[in-house]
Structure formats: structure tokens, C-alpha cells
Amino acid sequence: MRPYVVAIIGSGPSGIYAAEALCQQTDVPVSVAVLDRLPVPFGLVRYGVAPDHPSIRSIRNVLERTLSRPEVRFYGDVTVGRDLTVEELRGAVDAVIYAYGAASDRRLGIPGEDLEGSIAAAELVAWYCGHPDVHPDLDRPDAGDRDQVTPAIDAAAATRLVGSTRSAVVVGVGNVALDVVRILIRPTADLARTDMAEEVLTALQGRSVTDVHVLGRRGPAHTSFTTKELRELGDLDGVDIVIDPFDHDLDPATVGKVALRNLGVLSTWSARESSAERGSRGAGRRIHFHFWTRPTALVGDGRVHSVITERTKIDSGGALVGDGPGPELPADLVVRSVGYRGTALPGVPYDEEKARVPHAEGRVIRDGSFATGEYVTGWIKRGPTGVIGTNKSDAVETVTSLLSDIADGELSAGHDSDELGRLLAGRGITPLNMGDWRRIDAAEIARGQSQGRDRATLAHRSALLAAAEHEERP
Q1: CATH number of the domain at 4-103+342-432, please?
Q2: Chain segment 212-232, per-residue pLDDT in tens
Q3: Which residue ranges does the record assign to the FAD/NAD(P)-binding domain (predicted)?
Q4: Is the pLDDT of residue 453 over 80?
Q5: Would you say 366 is a known binding-site residue?
Q6: CA dist 266 → 175, 271, 439 (Å)
Q7: Is 439 annotated as a binding residue?
Q8: Is 387 annotated as a binding residue?
Q9: End-to-end CA distance of the chain
Q10: 422 labelled ligand-binding
Q11: What is the CATH number of domain 105-339?
Q12: In this structure, which long-range contacts are made by residues 190-194, counting pairs with CB atoms below 8 Å and at least 24 apart in sequence?
């Protein structure tokens, strides 16, 4: 029986979990092509998980096993929408699964948000994770024009901002916000053991950050931290945690288990004496939590220097409303961590309001009807929610719909597995494959071990291609 050729756009967890689900079933033979605009796979596992969380980043070892299966091919450094259109891709395969994530960010919508020093968490995360979008090649500053996503800042701007910041404000109460807080204030000796790119480590060694303020517009019971990551802040050497007073007497029946655990951690911290109160010289660095507080304006002359806030409360109708002025917080850097947002890919249906691809159980809806052979999974399907593992069940739902359509005769196997390769070759495009990735992997390990650590991330696209022994394309 001829295999069904399925292309997956995006090699992050959602895309690779979809490939895994296709390969693990035995009813239908498949040939899977996983495409990514970057030279390397793994998406947010490589470029979104903080480098000081090696156990989470090691998930890529599991994902790599799927990409290494004989029925799967990795096509790296291929940009759908530039190197080939969605229509052309659909014409070369039997089905397409869109798994390209949510690359943009949500905004606060307040005055001063566009001042220098106000950035999205996604941009800062991309910088400290060594994403080539944010680390352009110095000899080819226009190299990023090949890509679909152009960040608002680059490495030079991020380095300048972080290096000149004493007080930072992080808006948001999720795990990404905690990652940003840790990276901004964590001792350099701790970060020097990670796989950060050398230039990022050098920039962080010059930090002068003493205070990081975390703003949550609701109370501590409404945070989306995982307790393990929250507790981690309390273990940072030389860092005090300062918490605004809050109501500890919440009804356990109205609060989830994770929220209760988080409340326990925060309550313990709020009762703990600071270094100054203990009579010592003080820790020198502080993390401040401000609940029931939201920013209303960023103030500055060219660059932000403070954040105007207001207190909040829940009114009788259950809505969040203002409850009077809050503190004006000093800030050389403001990082908004209020969620990611999906973006449109030319040729793919897109719901602007929801910032997602419209679908039902993973089947793409185009012009009011199911689009034959088009599916979606991951953040661009459901929105930026859940943890990495959430993508697995999400991908299974999508693949189940695809297999059901095959069983019902909605899809047929009409293409061979080499058709996509021939299409790209006809345009002079040589994608990176898993052999190329292994050479990059080996180069990063060797570079890191020469510096006394396990690996060192190669941040520039030219360095990645050189390590893969792959020729640069215009």
C-alpha cells in the first residue's frame, strides 16, 4: 500500500508529537516531512525554555528520536511562504498539518508602551536562548529577511537594555514571567553552567539589576505559576523576596490544588524576614511581588524610567476593576509577559480575533467548510495554553481526525515521498536534514566542553550553517 505523505509545518513539540502519533499507528503507512524555517529543530524547547532549566530542555532528546525515524524527514531552513507557498506544498503532499505555533506577543495597550526599554517577554526569551532571529549575522544584517518573524529588538539592543538596568518590572504571573525574573537577577555563576550563547553570558555578567518587580492584576490565587518554578526563586543566593500583603484566608473549596500550593509558598515568603530585618547587610538584590496591581502607563523621556500602576479588585459582577492608585515603580526595563499570540501564515485560514487557525478537532475550516487534507495542532490551533506535554494529546486529536478522514475515503495517497524534495531542489534549495543537525549538536557540545560546560548554543544562523557544513543561501 502506498504511504500517505504528510507535511508538518513546524518542528516544535506540537509538530513532532504529530509526527510521533502518525508513526506509532499501524493502520496506515505514512511518510512524514517536518519543515522548519530555522536550520535546527525543536522550536520552543530550544528557543523558549530558559537555559537554567536543563531537565526541561533535555526533552529535545526524546523529540529527536521521532525525527530520526526512517519514515520521517526533517527539512530545515525552509520557509513556507517564501521558499514555497502553502498551495505549492499542498500540491506536493497528501495532507498538511500546521504546527507553527504563536510567535507574536500580546500588548498591554497603555500609554508609553512603545518607549525604549519596553519589550515583550518573547523577545527577551529569544535573546537569552540564542535565537538566530535576535542574533543577526554581523556581516549580513539582512539575513533575517529570509524569515517570517522580525523581532522588535536584536542582540545589541537587548544587551544594552539589560546591561543598563537596575530596576525592572515584569508584567505577568506565568512561568515565562518567572523565567525572565530568574535570568535577570540570578547570580552569574549559576548561569555560567548553562548552555547559553557566549555573548549572552558575557552580557549578563555585566548586569547591574538589583530589583525586579512582578505585577499580577489579580490575586496570588489566580497565578499560573507551577509551584516548582515558583519555589525556585526562594533558592536564589543573595536574593530577598518582598511580597505585598495579601489575603491568606481563602476558601480551599474555591481554589485549585496548584493555586493552594502557590499560596503556601507565597505565604511562607511573606512571613520571612528580609536580610535587612535580620540585621545583616542585606542581600543586595530583591524580587518584589505586587498582586491586585496592573500598569496603567509607562513614563519616560525616550526611555522608560517608571511604571504608573493602579490597584484592582473584583466587583460584585465578577469583573476586574480599578481600586485606586498603586505605587509608581522605578523601571529601566519593562517586560510584558501577558501571553503569546498566533500570526497569519499566507495561504492559511486565520481568525484575527482569536489569533488562531479556525478548526474543529484539528480539521482546518476554510471558507465555512472543512478543507480536505488540511489540519492544525499546537498553539496555532488552541492558543498559547498548557505546558509542553499538553501538545501531545492535542496532536493525537488532530492525527486521529486525519486518520479518520483516510478511513472514510476523504483522503487518498496520490504523491510520492520524494516529490517535495524535487520541488525544493528545482529551486536550488537544499534543506538541512538530521545529519546536519547532529553535526551542529556535536559542534555545540564541543564548544561547551572547551569552556567547562556541557554545551554552548550557537546563536547565529551563519554559525549553525557552518557547523552543519551547509552553504549559506541568499
Answers
A1: 3.40.50.720
A2: 999 999 988 888 899 999 999
A3: 6-186
A4: yes
A5: no
A6: 15, 9, 45
A7: no
A8: yes
A9: 40
A10: no
A11: 3.50.50.60
A12: 190/52, 190/236, 190/237, 191/51, 191/52, 192/453, 193/453, 194/51, 194/52, 194/54, 194/453
